[in-house]
Predict the structure.
Amino acid sequence: MSGFPWQSAFEIRERVAAGSVSAVDVTRAYLARAEALNPTLACFLTIDHEGALAAAAQVDRKRAAGEALGPLAGVPVAVKDNLCTRGVRTTCASKILGEYIPPYDAHVVEALRASGAVLLGKTNLDEFAMGSSNENSAFAHVHNPWALDRAPGGSSGGSAAATAAGLAPLALGSDTGGSVRQPAAFCGITAIKPTYGRVSRYGLVAFASSLDQVGPMARSVREASQLLEVVAGHDRRDATSAERDTGNYLAACDRGVKGLRVGVVRDLIEGLQDADVRASVESALAALEQQGAILVDVALPHAQHAVSVYYLIATAEASSNLARFDGIRYGLRVQGKDLTETYTNTRAEGFGPEVRRRIMLGTYALSAGYYDAFYLKAQRVRTLIRRDYDAAFERCDVVCTPTTPTPAFALGEKTSDPLEMYLADIFTLPPSLAGLPAISTPSGLSAGGLPVGLQLVAPPFEEEILCSASQAVEDGSGLLSTHPTALP
Amino acid sequence: MTAYEPVIGLEVHAQMRSRTKLFCGCPTEYGAPPNEHTCPVCLALPGALPVPNEKAIELAVQAGLALECEVAPHSVFARKNYFYPDLPKGYQISQFELPLNGAGHLDIEVDGEPKRIGITRIHVEEDAAKNIHGSGSTAVTVVDFNRGGTPLIEIVSDPDLRSSEEAEAYLRKLRDLLMFIGVNDGNLEEGSFRCDANVSIRPVGQEEFGTRAELKNINSFRFVKKAIDHEIARQEGVLQSGGTVVQETRTWSEAQGKTISMRSKEEAHDYRYFPDPDLPPVVVAEERIETLRAALPELPEAKRARWQKELGLTEYDAGVLSGHPEIAKYFEEATQAFVDQSGAKAKAAGKKVGNFIQAEVLRHVTTDGLEALFPVAPTAVAELLACVEDGTINGKIAKTVFASMVETGTGPKVIIEQQGLAQVTDTGAIEAEVSRILEASPAQVAQYKDGKTNVIGYFVGQVMKATKGAANPKAVNEVLRRLLDER
């Protein structure tokens, strides 16, 4: 198969539709690559060999019968293991759900199946999506395909690494405070965190309900945009799902940036310690300007509080969301002498240290006497952060920052200091708290050859602007044909 | 010895009569095999999300309107967090800071004394599932999630009640009201109407409230009075002996006939309430509130007043006939049909129909929640009474005919016809019968002629006996007097 494994989703779909290659052959090739590289990269927690081949065979049957094919017909997709897949183990990389098999598909999984996509398997993540390095997975650490001793980022590290390493052209992740954007930046791919409410959360195992969004991940902006078109849309099973038409994200990639006002958060960029990241942002801004965008300075004065606000709100919600894992109806149960001991044993053994830490933080933030000082105050500051963006969007169409303060850090580098790890999310948290759509796309490589990501943030439901602007960044960087070098 | 005054506030949990659960599409129907009415949402499977049931919200608004509450245009679902196997999510979705219904009131009457009881709030929440505990040393507990997620309203009263009698009157009135507007089926046995009571006492004349105990599990009208009275006596005993009442949760034990401490204030849960991020605020537009207000059925109190004014019922009769929404409906339908068939005036019709229903129909009626089973249709009762009205049969025969109607399910006219029960108003036939009896009773005729006119009762009896009660008594009287006077 020519171009394998780096051909795009569009090329695969076109060839499958034309009959020049069968979906089953495409799937076999990707399954073989995934099975060969997974021992090194640990991207997948489950490879659904049988299910993938059956889905591919279905596409081939449809084509043979002359039936209409979906936009992702025959395209292999990797799905983060916190998205429910009917009949396929969904673990959230947690021992507490180690053997859990959902009886239903998440909304986005249904949408993928309907589009003709072939689900290859379930990707590794930080346990319950809590983490920025994938080191909180209860099962295995994902390695960054650009440098195996580096973290792939988190929590959607498995999806990012799988896409970057050519184990799948497309992947779904989920983003609560940067969980698709940060690993996309670390692994040199593109990921979109849609507007809160743009994509249904039904079937996404909740971490922090007011922040969680499913996000598309791909090696190119166009493919990510196509995947967003497939999974976005109203779903009445999620009461927070927006009743708005989806955009023409793919078409938006070709609109250019002429006259687009790009807001530059100058003090954040100038405060960057990492010279490579700073240079990469500057070159992306230059590329945007060169293609006709107008750079304007904007400020996000309350963004500095995002880390504290996020770790109060997200943990508070998580402490309640994770209460259902009690060993009574499904998942791990470690029996004790009475009910309380059964709860304690189950949750102490079932959850890893970071999940336990966040449950305790969140429980504390909601406790009687502390609620006003912590949770309520955090909600007020969250409003201030949203207003910062409102003010910025009066002056610009899109706000630009780096995605992360540094390129991928080394595995083990930050595990001993959770606060240090939390600070890795400093740029991705503010748009999450404001519910805004954001994208990360590669803007350059560091001196050490590691990818650097640029984050763009748009007003609510203006994902199309993100697609147009990121396409310009991608065109400017010329990185699309550069692939990780650390692979066998 | 100090005289104490009890202060009581009630919290009523009433299941709402929506077809489906509060946050998923599972049926709320009672009595299905365990865990049949469940889905990913009400089993709290990973990734499942709640979606509010608009019908349940509307029922809750109607409950608020019936209790004169201020309906909030904007209310918020909140999570009440605690661990228990009957609570699959580890939290109950309820309302906390911003309930759907704010302050309202309910007027009660005890010993003819009217009293207004304040309603603090009415909020919407989901019911828990049901733990079923096994017995014996190796017993296990299993959970039936059918009930889990059933929509409830919690109606919180102000601490305005001053006796167990007032508490009982309040509960009966509240249940009555919720049943009439179709929000709740009033079924205490099945647990669809449940009550907790906050009870404290204070020296008469003292403004400040005493320390309260929360009484759980008083789920029958019989227990309410007993449990509250017992608790008042217990607290009096504590204070009289120089002790202090502690804030705690107690449960009523019917077996032991007393309240028992469940947990102290220190052991109370910290529920860590916070707005549920899965659910946007509940918005009820003014327009919708007005539509729901207009759709409210006539409330029982208004109904009783109207019946007394328009249908000639006594207060007592109105009370009996409004004892159940279906009985009230039956009475109204029968009265209307009777008016239509007989041309009687509403006032006379209501009284006649009301009397007949109370005397004859009600003992055949069985009720189960909001359902009621009647022996015959209300139109059949109207048809029967119309036959009395037009003189076809008399009131006494009507009872016989009704008994046949209940037994055979046949209409009154057919029964009257088949059994030859129509009154004889044909003067010729009555004259023949009267003549025969007068001939056969010379002694009584002589008495009559002697001025003992009350002997006429004897003749009437004889004629009725001979005609098997079918003769029109009025016609018999006339004929008798005429023929006797002719002699």
In short: The first strand of chain A starts at residue 44 and ends at 47. Chain A has a mean pLDDT of 96.
